Amino acid sequence: MSVVADFGSMTVHADLLLAAPCERVYRALTDPARLAQWWGSPERYRTFDWKLDLRPGGRWSCQVDDPARPGQSVRGEYRVVEPPRALEYTWCPSWEGFATTLVRIDLEVEGAGTRLRLRHTGFATAAACQGHGAGWELVLGWLAEQGLD
């Protein structure tokens, strides 16, 4: 896995090869019950109460159980929904004052698996870019470890 926070463009780039077909990876990224199962860990934080209206213009949200930052949430709106190849959505986390950034995930068949490429753009500060880069490294690690069963 490669996750890079590019402070010049204020963009997080991630690239990961997953040992599952695109359809299974896409389902892990778009099924509320599956998202709650894999997105988080007991040592860091857990996500729950995922609500997804999976269509362009549809809204999504989840709550975050984080002892270090109680009462947090993330929300956004889908821009692109192309099963099982692409998702694009706004990302508005409460811990950033609901500042809006944009996440794009592309999935491609590679051998017997799936190449996931993520691009997260629109950060106002290097600290936000760096923090989200570290966050995506955790999240994509959880996806690879427990989200594809």
Question: What can you see in these coordinates?
Answer:
By secondary structure, this protein is an alpha+beta fold. It has one domain (1-59, 102-149): START domain (Alpha-D-Glucose-1,6-Bisphosphate, Chain A, domain 4). The chain contains three helices and nine strands, in the order ββααβββββββα. It has helices spanning 22-30, 32-38, 126-146, and strands at residues 2-6, 11-18, 40-41, 45-52, 59-65, 72-82, 86-93, 101-110, 113-121. The chain has a nine-stranded antiparallel sheet with strand order 1-2-9-8-7-6-5-4-3. β5 (59-65) and β6 (72-82) form a beta hairpin. The relative contact order is 0.25. The model has no long low-confidence stretch (mean pLDDT 96).
Can you describe this structure in just a few lines?
The protein is of the alpha+beta class.
Notable traits:
single chain; 149 residues; alpha+beta; Alpha-D-Glucose-1,6-Bisphosphate, Chain A, domain 4; nine-stranded antiparallel beta sheet; 9 strands; 25% helix; globular
Alpha plus pi helix count:
3
What is the second-level CATH architecture?
Answer: 2-Layer Sandwich
CATH topology: Alpha-D-Glucose-1,6-Bisphosphate, Chain A, domain 4
Low-confidence stretches: none
Mean pLDDT level = 96
CATH superfamily: START domain
* Count of all domains: 1
Instruction: Provide the CATH top-level class.
Output: Alpha Beta
Q: What's the shape?
A: globular
- Tell me roughly what share of residues is in helical segments: 10-25%
| Structural Rg | 14 Å
In which order are the strands of the major sheet placed? 1-2-9-8-7-6-5-4-3
- Which structural class do you get from the secondary structure elements? alpha+beta
The helix/strand series, from N terminus to C terminus, equals: EEHHEEEEEEEH
* Number of strand elements: 9
Alpha-carbon distance between the two ends: 19 Å
Describe the sheet with the most strands: 9 strands, antiparallel
Strand content: over 45%
